[in-house]
Amino acid sequence: METRLKYSVMFISVLFFVCLLVQPSAAIVLTVKDMAGRSVVLPQKVDRVVGLGGALRFLVYLDALDKVTGVEEVEKDPLTIYSRPYSIAMGKSAAGLPTIAEGGPGGKLPNFEKLIALKPQVIFIMGVDKSHADIIQKKTGIPVIFLSYGDTGVFRKESAFEALRIMGSVIGKSERAKKVADYINQCEDDLKKRTENLQPKNVYVGAVSFKGRHGITSTQGFYTPFEWLGLNNVANQTSRQGQIFIDREMLLVWNPDFIFIDASGLEMVDEDYKKNPFYYKKLGAIKNGKVLSIMPYNSYHTNIEMMIANAYFIGKALYPDRFRDIDPSKKTDEIAGFFTGSVVLERMQKDLKGFKYLVFGSNNIGAQVK
């Protein structure tokens, strides 16, 4: 009897221990505070996610595409993916995933039924409208984490780092998140060192995208590549950060030494030039052949890898001696390769006239490499 009791106690103890081991991981939770200050309860191990509002970009940066269960329609749009390196890098992966929202700059809410059917453990949403996170979580019952890296079209480095940190901690990519932040800091430090103690040149960036494509009067105050290179961005005279629409006559007053055109809006600049050639030919930069195209800065929020690549291209164009060791094309593929795992410049240049000198001819704007 005593022996039987002893074995019964042992059996119950072992059974209890086994039950602890096989408890579903979903029962073990953690709480994360997102960038809207919301406390979100999550499973400790997250393997199925969705990124809304451009959050897919950071999932690609963190090498977590294998965890993505669905995407927005905008991530599949062949007319816009060429302007986003992470979309190009995804390639057929995005095309093969279910569509759960329209997406894009309009800020429309996703299809709740499709989200529920996909059963992601976490939904990440990138943007400026914090209320969407609560609405989506309430409608789907799925934890939603709100992230941001600045107002629409504005890159704020510390906010980007915080978004990477939070996302990385949730999906088990904390080490990769730190590497991405360190890489951005290293590039910024390198660019600043290359241009220190130089007389700043007067520059302007036009055709910057903001909730769509725009012409030459769409610019950016405190444009990050200019800031990192120590250049005098004439648009900073407005004292406004981020995207700005200026009066076209203001550009004539500023008359910058160099003009850079965001390739996403180059077609619109070309159309405007055909209608108003005399306006453009009044600009000194055009008279002196100092107009260059750069890759899209904003496309569903800021392309961080292209922002850095643009800075190296601009630095090489303005200060060739300080950037003697830099080949902008190779540097771009190196940067994009680090962020997305793919080289993208060849594909982007098939659709865009980026990283070229622009020639304002008699009928249109041509592009050439010098």
Describe the structure.
The protein is an alpha/beta fold and 370 residues long. It folds into two domains: 157 residues, Nitrogenase molybdenum iron protein domain (Rossmann fold, 3-Layer(aba) Sandwich), CATH 3.40.50; 173 residues, Rossmann fold (3-Layer(aba) Sandwich). Helices cover 42% and strands 17% of the residues. The protein contains 16 helices and 15 strands. Helix 8 packs parallel to helix 14. The chain starts with a helix and ends with a strand. 44% of the residues are buried. The N terminus is likely disordered.
Report the helical percentage. 40-55%
How would you sum up the global shape?
Answer: globular
Q: What is the number of E strands?
A: 15
The CATH superfamily of the largest domain is known as Nitrogenase molybdenum iron protein domain
Question: What secondary-structure arrangement, pairings included, does this model have?
Answer:
Layout: H1 2-21, E1 29-33, E2 39-43, E3 49-52, H2 56-61, E4 68-72, H3 85-90, H4 92-95, E5 99-101, H5 112-118, E6 122-126, H6 131-140, E7 144-147, H7 157-171, H8 174-194, E8 202-206, E9 218-221, H9 224-229, E10 232-233, E11 242-245, H10 248-254, E12 258-262, H11 266-275, H12 277-280, H13 284-287, E13 291-294, H14 304-318, H15 328-340, H16 345-351, E14 356-360, E15 365-368
Parallel strand pairs: 3-4, 3-6, 4-5, 6-7, 8-10, 8-12, 12-13
Antiparallel strand pairs: 1-2, 9-11, 13-14, 14-15
Observed structural traits:
6-stranded mixed β-sheet, 17% strand, 5-stranded parallel β-sheet, Rossmann fold, 16 helices, alpha/beta, 370 residues, single chain
